[in-house]
Every structure is written in C-alpha cells, then in structure tokens.
Protein: Phosphonate ABC transporter ATP-binding protein
Amino acid sequence: MSELIVELRDATVMQETQAVLQGVSFALEKSDFAYLVGRTGSGKSSLLKTLYADLPLLVGTGTVAGFALPRLPVGKVPYLRRRLGIVFQDFQLLPDRTVAENLLFVLNATGWRGKARKQQRIADVLGRVGLSSAANRMPHRLSGGEQQRVVIARALLNEPTLLLADEPTGNLDPEVADSIMQLFTEINYAGTAILMATHNFQVIEKYPHRVLTCQDGALLDSARN
Ligand SMILES: Nc1ncnc2c1ncn2[C@@H]1O[C@H](COP(=O)(O)OP(=O)(O)OP(=O)(O)O)[C@@H](O)[C@H]1O
Structure:
C-alpha cells in the first residue's frame, strides 16, 4: 500500500495577505522525488515554508508526515519539524560552533538523551555525507560544498520521512552540485521522500524526476500531464 507523506488539496499558499499560489493539489508518497521549479518569486519557497508550517495553511486541506496543516497548533510545529529534514537558506550552520556541536545542538533541541547515543548519531550522519573527518572543524573552514553536506547531515539526524530542500546546489560548481545530487539519490533510495526547489536545469536533466512547476499562481504537475 502506498504511504502518503504529503497531501495538499485545493490549498492556497499565502504570504501575509497575498495569495501566492491557489488551488494547489498534489501528493508525495514515501520515496518519491520531485523537483519544484518556477521563476523567481513564483512561490517555491513559500510552498516549502507552508509544508514545514512556517506559513499557515488557511485555505484548503493538507497533511505532512501525518500532521494536519490547517490550524496546526504552534506547540505541534516542533513535532512536525522532527519528521522533516530541512535544507534551506534560512537554516544556516551556527558559525561559532564546530560541525559536531552544530549537530549536537539539533539533537539536544529535539529531545535526544545519552551522550554516547548522540555521539554515535553524529558520527553516523557525518559518515553518510562523507565528512567523518570534519567533526571538529568550524563551518567557515569548510568549502561551500562541504558546508552544504553538513547541512544535509543535520537534516538527516532524525531520520526524516521527507526532505525539503531549497536550492541545495545553488552557488556550487557543477562537480560539487553533482556530489550533492548523488547524496540526495542515496537518501531517497533509502526511503526518504524529497521535494527540492531548484533553478538548475542541468541537474534536472541529469537526474530526471517528476517536476512541479509554480506558474501564474498555480502549481503544475508533470505527473498529471
Ligand atoms: N516574507 C515575505 N513577506 C511577504 N511577501 C513575501 C515574503 N517572502 C516572499 N514574499 C513574496 O511571495 C512571493 C513568492 O516568493 P517566494 O520566495 O516563495 O518565490 P520563489 O519562487 O521561492 O523565488 P526564488 O526563486 O527567488 O527563491 C513573491 O511575490 C514574494 O515577493
């Protein structure tokens, strides 16, 4: 049986009082991989923010990782976020802490107990992104691609059912972007659904997946064409 990770029906994505997207209906199942494309200002980030409850869903229905979005109580938001991996410009690494301390910060904030367990989890996710040797380094001593891999490692800490990524290959050279995409492919293969906003059509061509397009205030779905 299919397992729905995201389902929006007739949803309106709002920024303050402005409707950015209307009539948004789509679903993602476990292990789906979809791109989110569209011009600057077309609503990609706003849609992702709605999915992680940074913007409220006021019109339409929606569930994400088992949480109903309309009228989601503020107290429930951290529980929703624990089920998600978020790779977003708004969630930078803390510059005054090492890589391991950055990861520990998230584990502590999401209720992990036990020093050994936490250390093991940090080692696991850093190994997964190929950065085992970077645990004690400061973020600014890493390359842009390495920093992005740490952000992805951080997003994996709580074994998310859904990874939301906004321009994860932005500002990276093509080879580094490629290594990020290979990492995403592995993460997706291991059972995490991925929704990735991007302007990078070379990446989309090389790693073809379903495409959701924000256009003229609506969301078009390549799976429905
Ligand atoms: N914090 C905000 N407050 C009010 N309006 C906003 C805010 N952020 C974005 N908007 C508006 O919402 C609309 C959609 O913006 P959004 O950032 O979702 O687009 P985008 O497709 O992600 O763009 P980009 O490709 O440049 O990241 C735009 O008209 C934008 O001006």
